[in-house]
Amino acid sequence: MQSCRFCGEALTQNFVDLGMSPLSNSFIKPEHVYAAETFLPLHAFVCSHCYLVQLEDYESPDHIFQDYAYFSSFSESWLRHAQSYVHKMMSEYPIGTNSQVVEIASNDGYLLQYFKDNEVPVLGIEPARNVAQVAIDKGIPTISEFFGRELANDLSAKGNQADLLLGNNVLAHVPDINDFVAGMKILLKPDGIITMEFPHLMKLIENVQFDTIYHEHFSYLSFTAVNQIFQKHGLQLFDVEELPTHGGSLRVFVKHEQDQSKRVQERVQSLLNEEEEFGIKSMRVYEMFGQKVKKVKRDILEFLIKAKNEGKTVVGYGAPAKGNTLLNYCGIGTDFIDFTVDRSPYKQGLFLPGTHIPIHSPEQISEAKPDYVFILPWNLEEEIMNQLSYIREWGGQFIIPIPEVVVK
């Protein structure tokens, strides 16, 4: 029996079992399309002691991130989100040309480039070497290592402590969350600020966002659980923002608990109260989630079966990790979706793991003129519908699968 990766308690409470699934970003090269694939259990549990939702450990981060296929800069809305964040931090906090900004999981430099444009010293930490190299080529200093106590001690010893230490969508990706947060405590200057963004578990449950569960995400985070984790390591959440990104995310603001220069905002207790009212500490909420997921699966398949029986053509848009969870759990392959497209040239010409749906460039949609475009990264629905508005010319429509099947 597995133990909770935060508090060590035995994990006995089921959250959702999504069956067997390949690694969500293990895209297949054409020459390997008939080779055997590795499928791993995708089964999430919730700790009844600290309320951390988590997957069992079946694969190491070294394998998952050795040749990563996700590049943040291919989403225009995400770049705008990064620009807005940089403006906020520089206008509302004393972050300027004399500050040191460090980003953990800095990807291809999508965010640090905007600090660099404002002549703020930056350092990226990105374990995926192929992605880190793209940032380095942009002139953004980047260390290609996993973050934790060891790296934090090394950087601190070299005088690289952070005035602003940030991480977007990384907290869920670390198997040893105690080592990770302890490292942030070490790397943060006495009066520094940490900001972390992560998908909000409450929204995941509320909107049945089961497809955001995949092997790269070791943990699924409520504000309640995150508050406990940071407190354990001498860090205090002093503010929080609710964001629309990734179907509903949180941005937490963190300081050393000894730092008296930053007042704890009322929003912190307010959100803790809201989660408690929602039932984040009630096992009943977690038990009900699995049944809701099964209904969404049935509804998606019912729609696709009806469409195909009527002779309609369906293609996908995007090749995100969440899409691979959805397709594999629902058993959707080329019998339902002819192909998918993605703006990233790193994915074009490959096949989706498990389902073997081919990935083309977006231009293929205008050539195929499908009846439906199935939007796999539903969190970018508006951006994608604007990009592909031309499908209306032949009567094409969009399928949004989460939280329920909607045709637009």
From TrEMBL:
Gene3D superfamilies: 6.10.250.3100, Methyltransferase, zinc-binding domain, NAD(P)-binding Rossmann-like Domain, Vaccinia Virus protein VP39. Transmembrane segments: none annotated. SUPFAM superfamilies: S-adenosyl-L-methionine-dependent methyltransferases. Keywords: Methyltransferase, Transferase. One of its GO terms (biological process) is methylation. GO terms for molecular function: methyltransferase activity. Residues 4-65 form the Methyltransferase putative zinc binding domain. Residues 244-403 form the C-methyltransferase domain. This is Class I SAM-dependent methyltransferase.
